[in-house]
Amino acid sequence: MKHFKTLSAYLDYLKLPSPEHPMLSIFTSKGDGFLPCPRESSPPITTDCYSISLKKFVKGDLNYGRTKYDFTNGALIFIAPKQVLQWDNSVVFKQKGFSINVHEDFFKGTELAHQIKKYGFFAYSANEALHLSPKEERQIEALVKNIEIEYQNNQDEFSKDIIISQLSTLLKYANRFYERQFLNRKELSNSLLEQFNKQLTDYFESGLLHENGIPSIAEIATKMSVSKRYLSDTLKIETGKTTTEHLQLYLIDLAKNSLLKPNKSIAEVAYELGFEYPQYFSRVFKKKEGISPTKYRELYKMNE
Q1: Rounded-to-integer distance, Cα 48 and Cα 82, Å
Q2: Which residues does the UniProt record annotate as the domain HTH araC/xylS-type (predicted)?
Q3: pLDDT digits (tens, 9 = 90+) for 174-210
Q4: Which of 38, 50, 99, 177 has its CA 20 to 30 A from that of 171?
Q5: What pLDDT score does 67 carry?
Q6: Strands (E), 115-257
Q7: Which of 110, 131, 152 is a domain's end point?
Q8: Are 281 and 275 in contact (CB under 8 A)?
Q9: pTM metric for this prediction
């Protein structure tokens, strides 16, 4: 897999104009014009750059996986360094909007270097893009215009600080708008929770638990065709619980039934559910139920 260490090498590969700054590039569509068209297709590649782009397709449809997405109102897509990129000529590149590429070294020595790693949407898939309302789109475009002014003008000692500040503000707005999107898509959130629980049920009923142990969140997300981070963030906003917490609750429900079988020890129940250490199982159980597995069994016997 080809990896591009510099922004210039990456843009040259895309057949796009060279950047004005060695670690920063900005492309925007002007008036009736369109964004520069990169190469039509590419095998898997990676870069050392962050990418933030607003896509407004004006001709044709864009498909990711089995779903068709309407990007005519504008969608923000975020790509992190080392993220695998691949596309083919079925993607329509005739589009408006903007594209910002920033080498990760541009942030070194700034507060944003640490903050940017906390924004989960850089780990989302393309089909989990942020769909903007017209008002939100105007707010984002105003920030990008300010960044472009600093980028195009003769840069001085203040330019980098101003650009970093504007990028930080843009990411904060994106975080806010994503929360709005999660809340506006409650049906999707409920559907994801149902799919998540179904994946767990299928996994446990298949007997894979004894062969492979407790499934990872990444494995479940892959089977659901969503990114691990997007799944967790969606469920967290809607239910107040992360995917790990939902998995633990599912395991605890199974444990309750097994604990009521008098011929099984606490350790046997833990091993059957895929816990490598019974002590860890007991800690998780107590954290979720407020009492230990032993106490739970005793209380049930008292109520018989």
Answers
A1: 6
A2: 198-299
A3: 999 988 887 666 555 567 788 888 898 888 888 888 7
A4: 38
A5: 40
A6: 130-131
A7: 131
A8: yes
A9: 0.66
